[in-house]
Structures are given as structure tokens and as C-alpha cells.
Amino acid sequence: MSKTWLPGFIFVLAGCPSSGNGPDARLHFDSGPDGTPGAIDGGGTDAAPADAGVALTNGCDPATAVDDTGMAAVTVMFAGGLGFNYSPKCFKISAGTMVTFQAGTMANFNQHPLVGGTIVGAMKNPDPASPFAPTTTMGTSKTFTLGTAGTFGFYCDVHGPSGMNGAVFVQ
Ligand SMILES: [Cu+2]
């Protein structure tokens, strides 16, 4: 009988980092049930190169980013389900593409303010010149037309340092 609960107990331990401090602990805890923790919190493929000294923006590498070039419009879901994340997190578009940030059913910009900028070493670096500036703090959907080529990071003002961040490469 005791063997039935033991594996579950181990799983819970694995999902809760002992060093958890606020939002970071929430991210890791919540990303488990969501089913897509890999791309967000370092368990996936694109977070590893970030520690290797490669110049990435919010963990995004243009070589592996989702290729949405040629699309007229792209939608980025945020805080979908229980995951404090953006999907896609890293993507490429053509200049002139409309990018819409769309909240999940239980989320909004008040809970997840959208900031243009980067997370470097868990520090938030807002960029006032970002096409995503100023910070979006209300509503559930916001559309930006990205007309200029470049790399533009974005993050959630609350959960950005713990993984809710991403970048778009405009070509
Ligand atoms: Cu958030």
C-alpha cells in the first residue's frame, strides 16, 4: 500500500525546488501539470545554450526559433492553462507582421504585464525604445505591428525573471 503513494511523493519533491523564492517556486510548481515545462524553465532544449555564453535574447536563438516569416499575423498566447509562459516563446517574423499577445482563459495583462526588454541574470531590463513599450497592464489582447527589423525581447513584469519571457526576431 505504501508503495502507491511513494512515487507521487517523489514527484512532488522534484517539482518543488528547495531554493524556491516566490515567483520562481510558483513557476516550477505550475509548469509541471501544464505539460510543457521544457521550453520555459531550463528543462528544454533552448535554455541550455544560454548558459554556454552564446548571445541569446531571453534564451531565444534565431537558429531554433519558430519560423513564422511570411505570416501576416502571429498570435502569442500567454499564461495559458497553468503555465506562466509565452507560446511561442521564440519566433521569427517578417517586418510588417502583426503580433497579438492573447491571454489564456484565466489570465490578463493586469496579472501579467507585458514589458518590452530583456531578462539578464534574473534582472529585468525594460527597453523604452521597444516596439512593445509602454508596458501593457490592462485587457486580455494586444496587437503590435512590428515594422522594423531587429531582435525584440519581451517579458512578464511579474514572472519574467522566473521564465515568462521570450523574443521575436524581425527580418
Ligand atoms: Cu506573468
The top level CATH class name of the largest domain:
Mainly Beta
- Rg value: 17 Å
Distance between the termini: 59 Å
Shape: globular
Largest sheet: 6 strands, mixed
Give me the side-by-side strand order of the main sheet.
Answer: 1-4-10-9-6-7
Heteromolecules bound? copper (II) ion
CATH topology of the largest domain: Immunoglobulin-like
Q: Approximately how much beta-strand content do the residues carry?
A: 25-35%
- How much helix, percentage-wise, in residues? 10-25%
The figure for the number of domains is 2
Count of β-strands? 10
Tell me the CATH superfamily of the largest domain: Cupredoxins -  blue copper proteins
Structural category is alpha/beta
Mean pLDDT: 79
Report the CATH architecture of the largest domain.
Sandwich
Order of helices and strands: HHEEEEEEEEEE
**SS summary, helix count:** 2
Low-confidence stretches: 1-50
Question: Could you provide a short overview of the structure?
Answer:
The chain has two domains: 2-41, no CATH class; 66-170, Immunoglobulin-like (Sandwich), CATH 2.60.40.420. With 171 residues, the protein is of the alpha/beta class.
Describe the structure.
- With 171 residues, this protein is α/β, with parallel strands linked by helices.
- The protein folds into 2 domains: 2-41, no CATH class; 66-170, Immunoglobulin-like.
- The chain is built from 2 helices and 10 strands; from the N terminus they run ααββββββββββ.
- It has helices at residues 2-15, 23-34; strands at residues 66-67, 73-78, 86-87, 90-93, 97-103, 114-120, 123-126, 141-146, 150-156, 165-170.
- The strands form 2 sheets. It has a 6-stranded mixed beta sheet, with no helix packed on it.
- The relative contact order is 0.19.
- The model is unreliable at 1-50 (pLDDT under 50).
- Copper (II) ion binds at residues 79, 84, 112, 156, 158-159, 164.
- Residues 79, 84, 112, 156, 158-159, 164 line the site of copper (II) ion.
